[in-house]
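Dear colleagues,

As part of the handover before I leave the project, I'm documenting each prediction I ran so the next person doesn't have to rerun anything. This entry is a single chain, and its sequence is reproduced below.
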Amino acid sequence: MLSAFRKTLLGPTYGSPLEKIQILPTRSTTNPQKCYLAYITKDKVGLQILPVDGNPHKSSAFICHPDGVSDLACSYDGRYIFTAGGNDRTVLKWEVNLNALEAAASLGGEDLVPFYSLLEGGREGEFFRELEDYFYYVQLRSQGIDALETRQVSTHIPLEEIPSVMRAMGFYPSEEEIEEMINEVKFSEYVDTGEQVTKINLGDFIKLYINHRPAFGLSMKAIRRAFQVLGYDNENGDKVIDRGDLLLLLQCRGDHELGTSTMFALSQDIRIKLSCTILFLLCAEMATALGTGLPGLWSVLGRGFSGNSSSGSCKCNIALRAVCIRPSPFDRHFCPKCMQDRGTVFLGINIFLCWDHVL
């Protein structure tokens, strides 16, 4: 296992992983630096233009042995590739046509054009527009939500914001994968300039996203299989996974980078997702009831406050207090009246109430 790496790139995707690769001997006199890679998959033989950058148009493959290919070899001059089958006991000779491969790569477009086609909806799709919006949202957050000075709109975002945008787009890498992505960008220019990169633009982010996301996505079959293995049948006969068991598995057998704070945030996110807007409105309503205003409300947090919910028919008590030591991720709090599960932690404030009646 390698302890260091340079990049993670999307290779040829033709139904199965690459089973063998070999550099094609250079036979170009006009451009001796041009290199190509010959490879085989489960039943195909193909060529890849080097260096690999995730562009799908820089590779091609054809079925060579329907029952499976076992090996390949290249001629000394790079003009031919030989493949050996398995049960069919055949050896085939393939003539290499690099001009056709280069033409296909050129027709696929330059710069970011080939990568746009790998996004859902392409350059004009909703997915790309959402990505642009998230780039602007992240800039607002990095400059401070409450900042009063003129905003500096940029085409770059800090590297620390890469995980947030990745997750907003539906890709949830582990902490180890996040570290790899950030280091990949951070040291991408170190050999040439001796300096670390501290920000990333939209084009490079798209390439990073395409090269790091799962090539074939997550199938429902895999999710159902996980529920079959980890779950149990509830009273309705459906497969369910206990939240405590899930968190325990993630912490003990999942990503080794998950710490207590991460697990606590995850458990609270699974329990209730409380938005800043709802929290602000709740605090504003309580401040109005107290007649203190929002600044005066914070002085109440240290000693606690008890009141009644004004919404719904449930008269659940509300306790709002500052939290110095956060409870265990598995702590549960119940409404004293209807015994419903309640509680979440957000921005250091612990709010215990019957959540169904707040919304």
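The chain has four domains: 20-109, 122-212, 220-258, 276-358. The first helix runs from residue 98 to 107.

All the best with the project,
I.
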